Amino acid sequence: MITIHGTGCSLMDYLYTNIDLSSPTIMRAMSKRPGDGGLVPGKLVFVEDLERFLNQPFTDFLNEVTEGKEPDKANLGGPSIVSLINAAQILEGSYNGQFKVAFFGGHGNDETARQLLDILARTPVDISEYREVAGTTPFTVVLSDPKADNGHGERTFINNIGAVLHYGPAEIPATFFDADIVAFGGTALVPGIHDNLASLTTKSKKAGSIVVVNTVYDYRNQAKDPIGRWSLGEDDTTYLATDLLITDREEAFRLSGESSIPKALAYFENMGTDAAIVTDGSRDIHFYSKGNLFGKLDIRNLPVSESVKQDILDSRIPKGDTTGCGDNFVGGILASMAEQLDAGMPRGKLDLVEACSWAVASGGFSCFYVGGTFLEQTPGEKRKKISHYYELYKQQIGRN
Question: Angle 372-375-380 (CA atoms, 0-180°, nearest 5)?
Fold first, then answer.
């Protein structure tokens, strides 16, 4: 059995899907300088910082933006849990092998927690180590504008950290490190994990696990120093202990201090990270591999899915939003890695392009439902839907 254990961000997303991000109310709340607490398209701010920026209670601002409407959807979100759910759903539909995907984290004792647990009970992820801790359950309000970015959509995120302020290394049991793949997702929204990421990734590596880190916009570090390089854990040994780093363009720039994707990737490689992927919204993904986990690849790029782009523009096909595209991308990577390991592929020979193909298809498919989490009616449903785009994508890049 191949096991994936993950920790990091899990929360409730409250999604508003038809917000005009160019409206006067939103523009008034937009950041004027880095780290000032204002909204940033595609990025996250904290409730308390936005309140200080606006000199206004968050609930008042939200009522003004949404005209008092209820969210279009309340859905399970977070870079860790969403990626794990997607990986588990893809693997659940696999014809071969046995897999276990488990999430380790903390939630509060409130209605939001009950909503989260109810949703998770309908997924293949093991949540026996998703435990109650003091405080309110984290949530994020997502304001989504489907017409932004030339019709590709854009959104902005407002987060309440809540209970995970009390979740750190002391709450992680020793069994967490007993896994084939250990994944740290969006830890910048879980301060106790993020501020100890170097020691946690190093411990995972020493235990023999493959270590995957996928990032989220680090507003805490941005607010502390809008110019300097973001830290990834308590020191830079996080990079050395990470087998695969997955980040988006802006996060890659802020982590590396560079201003181009190739230079950011070169920075991660020089810091000792064996492989890294940088996504760029509706544009090409870029990556490299030093050859210890995946086969060796110099810095190269792959396009996004043309079939997804065409279906987004097809008025006959129901649309969702772009929330969770990056998280589902990561889930596709994790699932492909697990299947390759299960097939007997040794470390150093895993196929990164194959993993990226599942990732691109997974991220693309998430544009056709609201929120990051897709709830299946039957096991294997999501794999079947993603496989459609995966097969077309392989044809697109000449790998059919």
Answer: 110
Q: What is the pLDDT of residues 76-107, one digit of tens each?
A: 999 999 999 999 999 997 766 789 999 999 99
Neighbours of 178 (CB within 10 A): 14
φ/ψ of residue 122, rounded to 5: -100, 10
Provide the β-strand partners of residue 275. 244, 289
Give the three-class secondary structure for 327: helix
Q: Which two tokens stand for residue 46?
A: 């904290």
Question: Would you say 267 and 218 are in contact if contact means Cβ atoms under 8 Å apart?
Answer: no
DSSP-derived secondary structure for 109-138: SSHHHHHHHHHHTTSS-EEEEEEE-SSPPP
Q: Mean pLDDT per 10-residue run, the chain (400 residues)? A: 96 89 92 88 88 94 92 90 97 82 95 94 96 90 82 84 90 97 96 97 98 94 89 96 97 96 98 97 95 97 92 76 86 97 95 98 90 90 95 91
Euclidean distance between CA atoms 363 and 357, whole angstroms? 10
Radius of gyration (C-alpha) of the chain in whole angstroms: 19
**What was the pLDDT predicted at 96?**
67
| 102-131 pLDDT per residue, tens | 999 999 999 999 999 999 999 999 999 999
Helix, strand, coil % over all residues of the chain, rounded to 5: 40, 20, 35
- Pick from 284, 244, 234: nearest CA to 262: 284
Instruction: Identify whether the C-beta of residue 26 lies closer than 8 Å to the C-beta of residue 61.
Output: no
Using alpha carbons, list the distances in angstroms from residue 10 to 167, 247, 327, 331, 344: 12, 18, 11, 14, 32
Helix axes 381-396, 352-365, angle to 10 degrees: 120
Residues 165 and 135: their CA atoms lie apart, in Å, by: 8
Strand-pair category, 283-289 with 297-302: antiparallel
C-alpha–C-alpha distance, residues 239 and 241, integer Å: 5
Residue 213 contacts residue 244 (beta carbons within 8 Å): yes
pTM: 0.89
Sign (positive/negative) of CA torsion 68, 72, 78, 81? positive
- C-alpha closest to that of 65 among 50, 79, 80: 50
